[in-house]
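stage 2 :: seqdesign
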């Protein structure tokens, strides 16, 4: 049976990963989105089990100790991780599995799954990134500042990835991702 593949989508917070992913999943319902666990409290728009599994720090630590996470990292004061079992099962069944994760987690995946296809989403500028974080209206000033600081250290790592996509015009960014994922090798 065909073995599926792993696709990693990374980029600074606020760059538009979630927005791009939503469209990608709508256009390609055969893709399987891996729902992460996090200790971050849910935002009003988020549903447990759909956007994240929201867990306590004790539960997160238990999952780490039991080796239930494929990768995990701390980000802006909270922990985030990828549950191992659903990813491994879906890949075994031949599906393409998409992880939307930050840089440290993407590096762990690269170590353990060198065949994963890794995409880095870049903002048109830092100023635009700040604008997007603010206009999204989810985060406190402190959280925005932490995300921007983290972005400054993440962006220089873009070259480590298979492709870099600037999310300026959303439709163009999507087409670039689709082209990279769905163009047969050798074409
Ligand atoms: N390493 C890792 N990072 C994750 C995971 N899930 C989400 N993230 C990343 O954690 C960061 C913060 O996510 P979140 O609090 O939802 O904020 P947002 O991405 O700015 O909306 C983002 O860069 C996510 O891509 C995960 O399972 N593992
Ligand atoms: N190409 C784009 N142009 C303008 N705004 C965008 C674009 N892509 C996303 N956004 C907006 O930027 C904000 C952050 O996007 P989001 O998908 O939440 O980012 P991330 O998941 O990377 O943190 C949202 O308000 C979203 O509507």
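stage 2 :: out
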């Amino acid at each position: 049976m065909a073995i599926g593949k792993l696709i990693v989508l990374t980029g600074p917070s606020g760059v538009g990963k979630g927005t791009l992913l939503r469209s990608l999943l709508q256009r390609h319902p055969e893709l399987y989105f891996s729902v992460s666990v996090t200790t971050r409290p849910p935002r009003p728009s988020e549903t447990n089990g759909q956007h994240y599994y929201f867990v306590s720090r004790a539960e997160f630590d238990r999952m780490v100790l039991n080796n239930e996470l494929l990768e995990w990292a701390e980000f802006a004061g909270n922990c985030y991780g990828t549950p191992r079992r659903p990813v491994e099962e879906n890949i075994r069944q031949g599906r393409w599995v998409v992880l939307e994760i930050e840089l440290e987690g993407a590096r762990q995946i690269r170590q353990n799954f060198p065949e994963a296809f890794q995409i880095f989403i870049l903002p048109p500028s830092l100023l635009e990134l700040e604008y997007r974080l603010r206009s999204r209206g989810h985060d406190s000033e402190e959280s925005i500042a932490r995300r921007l600081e983290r972005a400054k250290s993440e962006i220089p790592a873009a070259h480590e990835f298979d492709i870099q996509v600037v999310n300026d015009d959303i439709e163009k960014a999507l087409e670039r991702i689709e082209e990279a994922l769905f163009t047969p090798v050798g074409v």
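stage 3 :: structure notes
- The radius of gyration is 16 Å.
- The helical segments are 17-27, 57-65, 84-92, 103-112, 126-136, 141-154, 170-182.
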